[in-house]
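Quick log. Single chain, no ligands specified.
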Amino acid sequence: MKKLLLTLLMAAAFTGSFAQSHRTQNVVIVTLDGMRWQDVFRGADSALINSKYTADNEDVKKRFWAVSAAERRKLLFPFLWSEVSSKGQIYGNRDLGNKDEVANKYHFSYPGYSEIFTGFPDGRMNTNDPIVNPNINVLEFINKQKGFEGKVAAFSSWERFPQILNVWRSKLPVYSGYADIKNADANPRLKYLNELQHNVPKYLGDSTRSDFITYEYTKEYMKQYKPRALYMAFDETDDMAHEGNYKLYLERAKQEDGFIRHLWEMIQSDPFYKDKTTLLITCDHGRGEQPLDTWRSHGADVENSEQTWFAVIGPDTKPTGEVQTQTTTYHKQLAQTIAQLLGLDFKKNAGHEVGDAISTVLK
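-> predicted structure:
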Protein backbone atom coordinates (compact mmCIF):
# COMPACT_ATOMS: atom_id res chain seq x y z
CA MET A 1 0.00 0.00 0.00
CA LYS A 2 2.82 2.41 0.88
CA LYS A 3 4.58 1.65 -2.40
CA LEU A 4 1.35 2.23 -4.33
CA LEU A 5 0.76 5.56 -2.57
CA LEU A 6 4.33 6.66 -3.27
CA THR A 7 3.98 5.75 -6.93
CA LEU A 8 0.74 7.72 -7.25
CA LEU A 9 2.27 10.73 -5.53
CA MET A 10 5.30 10.64 -7.81
CA ALA A 11 3.07 10.40 -10.90
CA ALA A 12 0.99 13.33 -9.72
CA ALA A 13 4.10 15.37 -9.03
CA PHE A 14 5.48 14.61 -12.48
CA THR A 15 2.24 15.58 -14.22
CA GLY A 16 1.95 18.79 -12.23
CA SER A 17 5.56 19.80 -12.77
CA PHE A 18 5.35 19.14 -16.51
CA ALA A 19 2.14 21.15 -16.86
CA GLN A 20 3.93 24.08 -15.24
CA SER A 21 7.28 23.76 -17.03
CA HIS A 22 6.43 22.81 -20.62
CA ARG A 23 7.38 25.35 -23.28
CA THR A 24 5.13 24.12 -26.08
CA GLN A 25 2.18 26.45 -26.56
CA ASN A 26 1.18 25.30 -30.04
CA VAL A 27 1.20 21.99 -31.92
CA VAL A 28 1.23 21.23 -35.65
CA ILE A 29 0.54 17.67 -36.77
CA VAL A 30 1.26 16.51 -40.32
CA THR A 31 0.51 13.10 -41.85
CA LEU A 32 1.78 11.54 -45.08
CA ASP A 33 -0.77 8.91 -46.01
CA GLY A 34 0.68 5.42 -46.40
CA MET A 35 4.33 6.52 -46.36
CA ARG A 36 6.48 3.44 -45.75
CA TRP A 37 9.06 3.41 -42.97
CA GLN A 38 11.40 1.58 -45.36
CA ASP A 39 11.63 4.63 -47.63
CA VAL A 40 11.83 7.07 -44.72
CA PHE A 41 14.85 5.32 -43.19
CA ARG A 42 16.50 3.62 -46.16
CA GLY A 43 15.65 6.05 -48.94
CA ALA A 44 14.63 4.90 -52.40
CA ASP A 45 14.30 1.13 -52.80
CA SER A 46 16.56 -0.36 -55.50
CA ALA A 47 14.23 -3.33 -56.01
CA LEU A 48 11.35 -0.98 -56.82
CA ILE A 49 13.48 1.39 -58.90
CA ASN A 50 14.52 -1.53 -61.11
CA SER A 51 11.04 -3.02 -61.35
CA LYS A 52 8.00 -2.53 -63.56
CA TYR A 53 6.73 -0.01 -60.98
CA THR A 54 9.25 2.66 -62.01
CA ALA A 55 9.03 4.40 -65.34
CA ASP A 56 12.26 6.07 -66.48
CA ASN A 57 14.34 4.42 -63.78
CA GLU A 58 17.53 6.11 -64.98
CA ASP A 59 16.04 9.49 -64.14
CA VAL A 60 14.90 8.18 -60.73
CA LYS A 61 18.41 6.88 -60.03
CA LYS A 62 19.92 10.28 -60.83
CA ARG A 63 17.54 12.04 -58.47
CA PHE A 64 17.09 9.58 -55.62
CA TRP A 65 19.84 6.95 -55.65
CA ALA A 66 23.08 6.93 -53.62
CA VAL A 67 25.30 4.19 -52.26
CA SER A 68 24.36 4.52 -48.60
CA ALA A 69 20.93 4.58 -46.97
CA ALA A 70 21.92 7.75 -45.11
CA GLU A 71 22.56 9.54 -48.41
CA ARG A 72 19.45 8.15 -50.10
CA ARG A 73 17.06 9.10 -47.34
CA LYS A 74 18.44 12.63 -47.26
CA LEU A 75 17.84 12.94 -51.00
CA LEU A 76 14.24 11.91 -50.45
CA PHE A 77 13.55 13.75 -47.18
CA PRO A 78 16.10 16.57 -46.90
CA PHE A 79 14.18 18.44 -44.17
CA LEU A 80 13.52 15.34 -42.07
CA TRP A 81 17.16 14.22 -42.25
CA SER A 82 18.68 17.63 -41.56
CA GLU A 83 16.54 19.84 -39.32
CA VAL A 84 14.47 17.17 -37.57
CA SER A 85 17.25 14.61 -37.21
CA SER A 86 19.59 17.22 -35.68
CA LYS A 87 17.08 19.02 -33.45
CA GLY A 88 14.31 16.48 -32.84
CA GLN A 89 13.56 12.76 -32.76
CA ILE A 90 12.65 10.18 -35.43
CA TYR A 91 11.08 6.85 -34.41
CA GLY A 92 10.54 3.62 -36.30
CA ASN A 93 13.82 2.44 -37.85
CA ARG A 94 13.32 -1.28 -37.48
CA ASP A 95 16.77 -1.92 -38.94
CA LEU A 96 18.08 -0.51 -35.63
CA GLY A 97 15.51 -2.36 -33.52
CA ASN A 98 13.31 0.67 -32.89
CA LYS A 99 9.69 -0.10 -33.80
CA ASP A 100 6.63 2.06 -34.31
CA GLU A 101 3.24 0.53 -35.15
CA VAL A 102 -0.47 1.07 -35.37
CA ALA A 103 -2.34 -0.87 -32.70
CA ASN A 104 -5.48 -1.36 -34.79
CA LYS A 105 -5.78 -4.62 -36.72
CA TYR A 106 -7.05 -3.15 -39.98
CA HIS A 107 -4.03 -1.20 -41.29
CA PHE A 108 -5.84 1.28 -43.50
CA SER A 109 -6.73 4.95 -43.32
CA TYR A 110 -9.90 5.57 -41.28
CA PRO A 111 -8.88 3.20 -38.45
CA GLY A 112 -5.35 4.62 -38.57
CA TYR A 113 -6.37 8.25 -38.26
CA SER A 114 -9.00 7.43 -35.68
CA GLU A 115 -6.35 5.71 -33.56
CA ILE A 116 -3.99 8.69 -33.79
CA PHE A 117 -6.58 11.22 -32.66
CA THR A 118 -8.79 9.25 -30.27
CA GLY A 119 -5.91 7.40 -28.64
CA PHE A 120 -7.16 3.85 -29.04
CA PRO A 121 -7.98 1.26 -31.73
CA ASP A 122 -11.78 1.08 -31.74
CA GLY A 123 -12.86 -2.09 -33.56
CA ARG A 124 -15.99 -0.31 -34.78
CA MET A 125 -13.84 1.99 -36.91
CA ASN A 126 -13.22 -0.69 -39.53
CA THR A 127 -14.15 0.99 -42.81
CA ASN A 128 -13.24 3.93 -45.02
CA ASP A 129 -16.93 4.64 -45.53
CA PRO A 130 -18.34 7.93 -44.16
CA ILE A 131 -19.41 6.63 -40.75
CA VAL A 132 -19.28 9.20 -37.95
CA ASN A 133 -16.71 8.51 -35.26
CA PRO A 134 -18.45 8.41 -31.84
CA ASN A 135 -15.21 8.84 -29.88
CA ILE A 136 -13.84 12.09 -28.48
CA ASN A 137 -10.63 13.10 -30.30
CA VAL A 138 -7.69 15.03 -28.92
CA LEU A 139 -8.23 18.04 -31.20
CA GLU A 140 -11.80 18.34 -29.96
CA PHE A 141 -10.56 18.09 -26.37
CA ILE A 142 -7.90 20.78 -26.94
CA ASN A 143 -10.47 23.07 -28.54
CA LYS A 144 -12.47 23.07 -25.27
CA GLN A 145 -9.54 24.10 -23.07
CA LYS A 146 -9.03 27.64 -21.85
CA GLY A 147 -7.00 29.66 -24.34
CA PHE A 148 -7.55 27.17 -27.16
CA GLU A 149 -11.21 27.86 -27.92
CA GLY A 150 -11.61 28.50 -31.64
CA LYS A 151 -7.85 28.02 -32.12
CA VAL A 152 -7.92 24.49 -33.56
CA ALA A 153 -8.29 23.58 -37.25
CA ALA A 154 -7.67 20.75 -39.71
CA PHE A 155 -6.94 20.66 -43.44
CA SER A 156 -6.83 17.43 -45.44
CA SER A 157 -6.70 16.34 -49.05
CA TRP A 158 -8.82 13.23 -48.33
CA GLU A 159 -12.50 13.95 -47.84
CA ARG A 160 -13.13 11.65 -44.87
CA PHE A 161 -11.92 13.80 -41.96
CA PRO A 162 -15.24 15.48 -41.09
CA GLN A 163 -16.44 12.00 -40.09
CA ILE A 164 -13.17 10.94 -38.42
CA LEU A 165 -13.11 14.12 -36.32
CA ASN A 166 -16.93 14.21 -35.97
CA VAL A 167 -17.47 17.86 -36.84
CA TRP A 168 -21.17 17.62 -35.98
CA ARG A 169 -20.29 17.11 -32.31
CA SER A 170 -16.79 18.57 -32.08
CA LYS A 171 -17.65 21.76 -34.04
CA LEU A 172 -14.06 21.76 -35.31
CA PRO A 173 -13.32 23.63 -38.55
CA VAL A 174 -12.25 20.77 -40.82
CA TYR A 175 -11.52 21.65 -44.46
CA SER A 176 -11.33 18.38 -46.36
CA GLY A 177 -11.54 17.46 -50.01
CA TYR A 178 -12.85 20.50 -51.87
CA ALA A 179 -14.42 22.29 -48.90
CA ASP A 180 -14.21 26.08 -49.13
CA ILE A 181 -13.32 28.42 -46.28
CA LYS A 182 -16.46 30.46 -45.74
CA ASN A 183 -15.19 32.84 -43.03
CA ALA A 184 -16.45 36.32 -43.85
CA ASP A 185 -13.12 37.83 -42.80
CA ALA A 186 -10.98 35.40 -44.83
CA ASN A 187 -8.08 37.20 -46.50
CA PRO A 188 -7.90 37.58 -50.30
CA ARG A 189 -5.44 34.71 -50.66
CA LEU A 190 -7.80 32.27 -48.90
CA LYS A 191 -10.69 33.44 -51.08
CA TYR A 192 -8.53 32.95 -54.16
CA LEU A 193 -7.74 29.38 -53.05
CA ASN A 194 -11.49 28.72 -52.73
CA GLU A 195 -11.75 29.54 -56.42
CA LEU A 196 -8.51 27.91 -57.51
CA GLN A 197 -9.15 24.48 -55.99
CA HIS A 198 -12.27 24.03 -58.13
CA ASN A 199 -10.43 24.93 -61.33
CA VAL A 200 -7.28 22.80 -61.07
CA PRO A 201 -7.30 19.31 -62.67
CA LYS A 202 -8.90 16.77 -60.34
CA TYR A 203 -6.41 14.00 -61.01
CA LEU A 204 -7.17 12.38 -57.63
CA GLY A 205 -10.89 12.24 -58.37
CA ASP A 206 -13.86 14.40 -57.52
CA SER A 207 -13.47 14.14 -53.74
CA THR A 208 -9.73 14.30 -52.98
CA ARG A 209 -7.86 17.51 -53.77
CA SER A 210 -4.15 17.93 -54.47
CA ASP A 211 -1.73 18.17 -51.57
CA PHE A 212 -0.41 21.45 -52.94
CA ILE A 213 -3.81 23.10 -52.41
CA THR A 214 -4.09 21.60 -48.93
CA TYR A 215 -0.67 22.97 -48.06
CA GLU A 216 -1.45 26.44 -49.42
CA TYR A 217 -4.69 26.58 -47.44
CA THR A 218 -2.92 25.51 -44.25
CA LYS A 219 -0.15 28.06 -44.67
CA GLU A 220 -2.49 30.98 -45.35
CA TYR A 221 -4.86 30.00 -42.54
CA MET A 222 -1.95 29.97 -40.09
CA LYS A 223 -0.84 33.40 -41.22
CA GLN A 224 -4.25 34.95 -40.66
CA TYR A 225 -5.85 33.04 -37.78
CA LYS A 226 -2.85 31.83 -35.72
CA PRO A 227 -4.33 28.47 -34.63
CA ARG A 228 -2.70 26.86 -31.59
CA ALA A 229 -3.42 23.28 -32.69
CA LEU A 230 -3.34 22.57 -36.41
CA TYR A 231 -3.55 19.39 -38.45
CA MET A 232 -2.47 19.04 -42.11
CA ALA A 233 -3.09 15.71 -43.87
CA PHE A 234 -1.45 14.85 -47.19
CA ASP A 235 -2.76 12.00 -49.36
CA GLU A 236 -0.81 11.68 -52.60
CA THR A 237 1.88 9.25 -51.42
CA ASP A 238 -0.84 6.66 -50.81
CA ASP A 239 -2.55 7.40 -54.12
CA MET A 240 0.67 7.00 -56.11
CA ALA A 241 1.52 3.76 -54.30
CA HIS A 242 -1.89 2.25 -55.03
CA GLU A 243 -1.38 3.23 -58.67
CA GLY A 244 1.90 1.32 -58.62
CA ASN A 245 3.88 4.40 -59.67
CA TYR A 246 7.05 4.41 -57.57
CA LYS A 247 8.53 7.44 -59.34
CA LEU A 248 5.54 9.63 -58.50
CA TYR A 249 5.40 8.17 -54.98
CA LEU A 250 8.99 9.34 -54.41
CA GLU A 251 8.34 12.72 -56.02
CA ARG A 252 5.27 13.35 -53.88
CA ALA A 253 7.15 12.32 -50.73
CA LYS A 254 9.96 14.77 -51.46
CA GLN A 255 7.50 17.52 -52.33
CA GLU A 256 5.65 17.01 -49.05
CA ASP A 257 8.94 17.12 -47.14
CA GLY A 258 9.49 20.50 -48.82
CA PHE A 259 6.03 21.72 -47.82
CA ILE A 260 6.77 20.76 -44.22
CA ARG A 261 10.13 22.54 -44.36
CA HIS A 262 8.53 25.76 -45.59
CA LEU A 263 5.83 25.53 -42.94
CA TRP A 264 8.46 25.05 -40.21
CA GLU A 265 10.50 27.97 -41.51
CA MET A 266 7.36 30.12 -41.39
CA ILE A 267 6.69 28.95 -37.83
CA GLN A 268 10.23 29.78 -36.74
CA SER A 269 10.04 33.26 -38.31
CA ASP A 270 6.75 34.19 -36.60
CA PRO A 271 7.04 35.50 -32.99
CA PHE A 272 3.67 33.91 -32.18
CA TYR A 273 5.04 30.43 -32.95
CA LYS A 274 8.84 30.66 -32.78
CA ASP A 275 10.38 28.32 -30.16
CA LYS A 276 6.90 27.70 -28.73
CA THR A 277 5.63 25.16 -31.26
CA THR A 278 6.04 21.40 -31.54
CA LEU A 279 5.77 19.74 -34.96
CA LEU A 280 4.79 16.05 -35.17
CA ILE A 281 5.01 14.17 -38.49
CA THR A 282 3.69 10.65 -39.05
CA CYS A 283 1.51 8.38 -41.23
CA ASP A 284 -1.69 6.36 -40.85
CA HIS A 285 -0.42 2.88 -41.79
CA GLY A 286 2.47 1.06 -43.42
CA ARG A 287 2.66 -0.98 -46.61
CA GLY A 288 3.87 -4.39 -47.67
CA GLU A 289 7.45 -5.19 -48.69
CA GLN A 290 7.67 -8.88 -49.64
CA PRO A 291 6.61 -10.07 -52.11
CA LEU A 292 7.46 -6.87 -53.97
CA ASP A 293 3.96 -6.27 -55.32
CA THR A 294 2.63 -5.74 -51.78
CA TRP A 295 4.33 -2.32 -51.57
CA ARG A 296 1.21 -1.06 -53.37
CA SER A 297 -1.08 -2.37 -50.67
CA HIS A 298 -1.91 -2.42 -46.99
CA GLY A 299 -4.57 -3.95 -44.78
CA ALA A 300 -5.08 -6.80 -42.35
CA ASP A 301 -4.03 -9.35 -44.98
CA VAL A 302 -0.82 -7.51 -45.97
CA GLU A 303 2.09 -8.61 -43.82
CA ASN A 304 3.93 -5.83 -41.94
CA SER A 305 1.54 -3.06 -42.98
CA GLU A 306 1.11 -2.19 -39.31
CA GLN A 307 4.71 -0.91 -39.32
CA THR A 308 4.89 2.88 -39.19
CA TRP A 309 7.09 5.78 -38.02
CA PHE A 310 6.87 9.28 -36.59
CA ALA A 311 9.08 12.31 -36.03
CA VAL A 312 8.86 15.23 -33.62
CA ILE A 313 10.68 18.53 -33.16
CA GLY A 314 9.95 21.24 -30.62
CA PRO A 315 11.05 22.98 -27.43
CA ASP A 316 10.07 20.11 -25.09
CA THR A 317 11.73 17.32 -27.06
CA LYS A 318 15.38 16.39 -26.59
CA PRO A 319 17.41 16.53 -29.84
CA THR A 320 18.39 12.86 -29.78
CA GLY A 321 17.82 12.35 -33.53
CA GLU A 322 17.21 8.87 -34.88
CA VAL A 323 15.97 6.75 -31.98
CA GLN A 324 17.93 3.53 -31.58
CA THR A 325 16.45 2.08 -28.39
CA GLN A 326 14.98 -1.42 -28.60
CA THR A 327 11.43 -0.28 -27.88
CA THR A 328 8.03 -0.25 -29.57
CA THR A 329 5.75 2.77 -29.70
CA TYR A 330 2.14 2.74 -30.89
CA HIS A 331 0.04 5.37 -32.61
CA LYS A 332 -2.58 5.05 -29.89
CA GLN A 333 -0.02 6.88 -27.71
CA LEU A 334 0.17 9.97 -29.90
CA ALA A 335 -3.06 11.62 -28.70
CA GLN A 336 -1.95 11.76 -25.07
CA THR A 337 1.55 12.77 -26.18
CA ILE A 338 0.11 15.74 -28.10
CA ALA A 339 -2.01 16.72 -25.10
CA GLN A 340 0.88 16.50 -22.64
CA LEU A 341 3.07 18.63 -24.88
CA LEU A 342 0.48 21.36 -24.26
CA GLY A 343 0.33 20.60 -20.53
CA LEU A 344 -3.05 18.86 -20.86
CA ASP A 345 -4.34 15.41 -19.89
CA PHE A 346 -6.52 13.87 -22.62
CA LYS A 347 -6.36 10.38 -21.10
CA LYS A 348 -8.06 11.55 -17.91
CA ASN A 349 -10.84 13.39 -19.73
CA ALA A 350 -11.58 11.42 -22.90
CA GLY A 351 -14.19 9.10 -21.43
CA HIS A 352 -12.70 6.12 -23.23
CA GLU A 353 -9.45 4.18 -23.41
CA VAL A 354 -6.38 6.29 -24.34
CA GLY A 355 -2.79 5.08 -24.68
CA ASP A 356 -0.09 6.48 -22.42
CA ALA A 357 2.06 9.34 -23.67
CA ILE A 358 5.45 8.49 -25.16
CA SER A 359 7.64 9.71 -22.33
CA THR A 360 10.83 10.05 -24.39
CA VAL A 361 9.20 12.76 -26.53
CA LEU A 362 8.86 14.92 -23.40
CA LYS A 363 11.92 16.32 -21.67
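Confidence is low (pLDDT under 50) at residues 1-15.
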